[in-house]
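re: ur question from earlier - yeah i can do the single chain one, its not a big deal. heres the input i used so u can compare w yours
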Amino acid sequence: MRRFNHFNASTMENAVSLLNESEGPAYVIAGGSDLMGCLKDNLWIEAPERVVNLKTIPGLKYILVEDGDLHLGALATLTEIAESDTVKLQWPGLAEAARRTASPLLRNMGTIAGNICQENRCWYFRYPDKIGGRIDCVRKGGKRCLAVPGDHRFHSIFGAVNKCIAVNPSDTAPALVVLDATVKTTKREIPIDEFFTAEMGAQSTVLDRDEIVTEIVVPAPQAGPNSAFRKIAYRKSIDFALVNCAAALVIRDGKVESARICLNAVYNNPRRCEASEELLKGRELTEELAQEAGRLAVAEAKPLLQNGFKVQMAKTIVSDTLMDCI
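and the output i got, formated as tokens:
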């Protein structure tokens, strides 16, 4: 790990000032479960000059319901969200997504904001410098994605963004997407559908370098807690997802009034299944309809030689997650 300056922020304004005053790249740390790995492996082309600690800022760790909406402070941990009776009762898909993230120790450390802001996953991009030297993939300024001709078993099945086929690793991201959350930052409010991007090189969100997530707001369920989350991983207790999925339905008089379905770990960004959502509208959700929705969800898949198995996983998990909603 290269040397950097560490600062304890007293307020959010102070944290932003510390980022802006840095002579080189600067990052914030909350739980640190992703950042510390990035620092140890010298992930970035330019090593950070300073790291700003957010845990010393009071008032950022909360789970509140106001006017029916769920308010999650940026430092609320995944364990706290997973174990919250309120979240489990009204937003069960989000509670399950938080529960299925990583291991108990990492959930105790990891924050909801950190989970949606973590870097995309690819073993070429994250290859440690200390093991044989730097690998300059396209996300590190190289000319090509090394996973395409190399080992791409766990990579995108929906093509590349800026030549890169790394996938978004977050478990809570698809749950927040289907629940139509809003991310509040030190600069603005960002609809969750607009928060993730693979268009900015190594960065996986639209956040500016001096912009910090302060809160996530999840609207009240429109017609009951009809949301669900599923995850497929090699080891349930710790691994990143091979494929995960979240769904949220509004059901009235036995028929689907509206639907939001999101796959993750299959593309650079969380991927809405809009064709499947349209299929469900105005119809009674049956197992056969759910299976058809699963087929539509992967209709545009373009798997590579080694990751075709993820297409079947994605198709099945969409169907199963929809049935969990009812």
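Residues 309-325 form the longest helix (17 residues). not sure if urs matches, ping me
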